[in-house]
Amino acid sequence: MRFKLVRERVVYENPWVRLYDDEVTLPDGSPGTYAWVEPPGRRGGVIVIPRLPDGRILLIRVNRYAVRADSWEFPRGYGADGEDAESAARRELLEETGLQAESVSSLGSFSPDAGFFGVRHTVAVVDVRHDPGDALALQSSEAILEGRFVSRDEAWQMVAGGDIYDGTTLSALAMLVASG
Question: Which helix (H) or strand (E) holds 18?
Fold first, then answer.
């Protein structure tokens, strides 16, 4: 048996998130509630894996308020209304790092927590060129503190060392490795 929606109920909303506490019929037939969250408009997100010609990938260090700590992550964000994943990847990369995308390819999509978060994110590998002597144009309003190009092996060392712990970044990194 499956969950059955009785009444959808938004209990909180702002421009970035909508929180539901729906009335449902549980799989066993009894009444219940189900809390879940989504971005307004049910827009999906995009996780951008910037890649240099030599294969190194860009990670950014972001100060994350919710965990009160810095987190090494791939650039990411939500698509604008009507924007496809490729356009969103190009825009997010430019906004967060100042880098221009040369080409974009999708690795697929995933939900960060399908039991709680009602949206799927697309993972996009974006080929870029960047002169090591040039500084990245990091978006300070997003609390992006620095960027670093690393090899895949270095990224996995950062995972093992606890520097990369963000689930969205871990999922995207796993998809990159699975892609070959």
Answer: strand 18-25
Q: Give the pair of three-digit tokens for residue 108.
A: 């697929």
Predicted TM-score (pTM) of the model is 0.89
Phi and psi dihedrals of 9, rounded to 5? Answer: -135, 115
pLDDT at 134: 85
Beta pairing class for 121-127 and 45-51: parallel
pLDDT digits (tens, 9 = 90+) for 73-95: 999 998 887 889 999 999 999 99
Hey, CA dihedral for 156, 159, 163, 168, is it positive or negative?
Answer: positive
Q: What are phi and psi of 19, to 5 degrees?
A: -110, 130
SS3 128: coil
Neighbours of 173 (CB within 10 A): 24
Looking at residue 55, the DSSP 8-state letter turns out to be: S
Q: Are 123 and 106 in contact (CB under 8 A)?
A: yes
